[in-house]
Write a structure and sequence with these properties.
The chain has one domain (2-98): Response regulator (Rossmann fold), CATH 3.40.50. It has 3 helices and 5 strands, in the order E-E-H-E-H-E-H-E. It is of the alpha/beta class.
Length: 115
């Protein structure tokens, strides 16, 4: 099953398909099935990662995204991580993992201690 990585700065990890705008993200999840989606909060095209979360919620409520096993929030933005996590856990039953990555790299954030 496919994996999708939304980020406009970092490279996609091995096995993930990269999209760099929220519009690309929305087009992909409307046309294909993914088992894992990984999200950044700060997207430079003006649409924050929160828009991607809203799209996931709408698709899930419409009975789509049936193969989605989990959402990973990899944003280094502490406030953004919390916003996305809270929305997803309150409005869906999709498992959510928070695994922040350092800005401009795919290395785990060393200072991560929660939100």
């Amino acid at each position: 099953m496919k994996k999708l990585f939304l980020d406009d700065v970092r490279r996609a990890p091995k096995g993930f398909e990269l999209v760099t705008t929220v519009q690309e993200f929305m087009d992909k999840i409307e046309s294909d099935e993914y088992s894992i989606i990984s999200l950044d909060f700060n997207i430079n095209d003006g649409l924050e990662g929160d828009c991607a979360v809203n799209q996931i919620i709408m698709q899930w409520r419409d009975g789509k995204l049936t193969n989605l096993k989990k959402v990973i929030i990899h944003s280094a933005n502490k406030k953004g991580r919390k916003i996305m996590h809270d929305k997803l856990t309150q409005m869906t039953s999709i498992p959510v993992e928070v695994k922040p990555l350092m800005h401009e790299s795919n290395l785990p954030a060393k200072d991560y201690t929660g939100f």
